[in-house]
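ok here's Auxin efflux carrier family protein, seq below lol
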Amino acid sequence: MGFFNLLQVASMPIIQVLLISALGAFMSTRYFDHLLSPDFRKSLNKVVFITFTPSLIFASFAKSVSLDDMISWWFMPVNVGLTFLIGGILGWILVKSLKPNLKLEGLIIASCSAGNMGNLPIVIIPAICDEKGGPFGRSDACHSNALSYASFSMALGGIFIWTHTYQTIKSRSLRYKALEAAGILKIPNKDLDANAETLLLKGGNNENTILEVPTSDYIGDTENQSIQEQDQSAVSKNRKESSWYRAIEVLRHFVAELLSPPAIATFFGFLFGTVAWLKNLIVGDYAPFAVIQDTLVILGNGTIPCITLLLGGNLTQGLKSSSVKPLILISIIIARFFVLPVIGFFIVKAAANFGLLPLDPLFQYVLVMQYVMPPAMNISTMAQLFDVGNEECAVILLWTYVAAAIALTVWSTFLMSVLS
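and the structure came out like this:
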């Protein structure tokens, strides 16, 4: 397969995303009478979160994956987990090095760790199989395996995105809102970054936060000393209770995330995909409840267009008021499309050399490409849910998807030459 043919295959899904985003951007301007207004985008985002995304996850996974497949593909969950772990470490390094505004911390870590494991693999990987002279064998067999790999990848990505990434964005969004509610962010000329937050917050959580507030002039020295002693006593008591408190908070957050609509859909997708008699109830031409699966497919088909339109709608304001510096964008692109894929390539090659992977070269191709995917568009859904960094998220996704058109092509060409 020639370079320009591969360029067309790899870039078409990205171009589609950019075109739909541009439409969403125009729909939020006065030329379309502000059809995608901020209030409407927020309402539509909730519909995507509660209805469309769970439908897409369940319908794809229940249909395409069986128990035998999951057993033979056991390394794929490990690989997806490594993409989030290594990407999260890279994002954390960028945060500590660049010291961005607190609003951007969660977005940077999420953009480096959470790749688009859903719609892009489902479009790109089977399309490669359809090209004449491809390195992955017969077109029909390759296409069937590619759809199964991509569906399994999407389901696994949904688990990590709506647990790891969701918690990452949620925790930093709540900290940002806590500082905003306390009036700290309203201080003139205050660029709040990680160092400033350390000086402003004590105790590590919102409930036990102590703010350094200047004492009024009319309070005497004795009263000041008494207040300081009370504060020290409260801090000491909080430290003794912190271990149990944090453990309970972690467990509470984990349970809450498992009960989110996408996570519930993932669980039932696993259940119906692996239990044969349950799968036969809804999947197949003669399934008694096939209408349920068909309905979920219809709902799931609305996920990607809605998310992409919302991305474009947020972009209109983001280009005007976004605080994302070029250095941050360049750093995310380098980490996401160069450093992370290089590490992932050596991990997959090592696993193959130790005999941990199936002999199918397409499986190895999918594993490496999981490290190359641009940031998941669900990040914009989460930013919209917590109403923190919407415009900044749109700008990050815009430029990373532009860079992805080149990165996906280059890495695809390299992997095909290595694996064929």
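fwiw Confidence is low (pLDDT under 50) at residues 187-191, 198-219. kinda neat tbh
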